[in-house]
Amino acid sequence: MRVFVLLLLFLSSVFSQDKYMDNHSCNECHEKIYEEYQSSSHSKGYFNNELHRNIADKVSGKKYECATCHMPMADNLKELIEGTARPDKTNKTHTDAISCYFCHTIAYVKNAHKHNINTKARQAENYKPTLYGRLENPDDSDKHSSSKNPVYGKKVCMGCHAHKLNENNVTIFKAMDKEQESLECINCHMPELSGGAEKMDKRARGHHASHKFLGIYDKEFRATGIDMNISTKVDGIEVVLTNKMAHPLIIQPARVKYLEVKVLREGKEIWKNYINEPSEDREVFFEYRFKDREGKKVIIPAKAYSFEVNNLEAKESKTVSYKTPRLQKGDVLKATMFVRFAKNDCQSVVMLTDEKYKKANVLKEITHTIEKEEKE
Q: What pTM value is reported for the model?
């Protein structure tokens, strides 16, 4: 027993709280990656993401439970989650959001019921920290050692991007299934770019994985996630939607994606698939809908007791048919898929000033011109 106690004392003296390397310190050797990261959603957290901050504050004015994934390197993470501390704009471990150091020190990801758990590598006191990645034979530097870790092709994204259940076991976020691997995420959201990972490309690698973490806010990238096809029928038109992504079409409860279909004749709209609001066409209005214990609508899902979702699962297709006025030669059929980063319901309870959250943004748009009049 004495030997065991001595061993514990030795380990506690050898291992200490991680010495944090802030985002800017990475810029010295990884200029290109740092520049990419600065434009990414990973760099956006409580202090520079208005939608996230306002929803978090709406959920609780004391606890910041979102810190687990949105401020994961906070040096007082436990206190933030328990509500005995608040986000601090003077603290680099808070303002760095989903930091470089966090992502590159994940040693293991454990599947769990409410949300997965990232296990951080323990760093030995007075030794350089070891940063992990996918490169074969990675370079060390004066700031850190480097090592390849198989979790970076398997589960590294799954710690935060798999699923989240609220305290009532209601799913309020779901991006991936537990059988899926992070390599699917990486190949899509971190495509290979020219140039090595370091300023001094010692091993002449010639390329690196983009750290822009391309996603829904990138206009060109978001158009790649869905295929659309529009065709005519005797009494109308048919639209086929295909989700090309490895995750569901809708994963964020604040967002909505919807289809708008129009018939234009001589430049004027003569028919549309809804009259006033896109939500009138429920079949192609993709969103999460939450309810309280009595079955009434809940906007912020943290306290919801149930939910419904209209979605397209990964690789799933959906065909919708519409009866329209008789089509004539020269008529133009226009199908547009939109996304709102904050749907109207969300905007009704959360104050937002950034216009990008208020408007409808085009995901993808296609047109088809009638070459000849359809016969009965």
A: 0.90
State how far the Cα of 71 lies from the Cα of 45, in Å rounded to an integer. 7
Q: Is residue 328 part of a domain?
A: yes
Identify whether the C-beta of residue 319 lies closer than 8 Å to the C-beta of residue 239: yes
Could you tell me if residue 214 is inside a domain? no
| Cα(27)–Cα(33) distance, integer angstroms | 8
Structure confidence by residue, pLDDT tens digits, 228-276? 999 998 889 999 999 999 999 999 999 999 999 999 999 999 999 999 9
Query: Please, what is the end-to-end C-alpha distance for the chain in angstroms?
Result: 91
Evaluate whether 88 touches 94 at the Cβ level (below 8 Å): yes
Give the domain extent around 154.
14-44+97-209
The answer to whether the beta carbons of residues 102 and 72 sit under 8 Å apart is: yes
8 located within any domain: no
Q: Provide the number of structural domains found in the chain.
A: 2
Please list the ranges in the chain whose pLDDT falls under 70: 1-18, 373-376
Do 303 and 343 have their domain in common?
A: yes
Last residue of a domain, one of 159, 181, 209: 209
Q: If DSSP codes are grouped into helix, strand and coil, which group holds residue 257?
A: strand
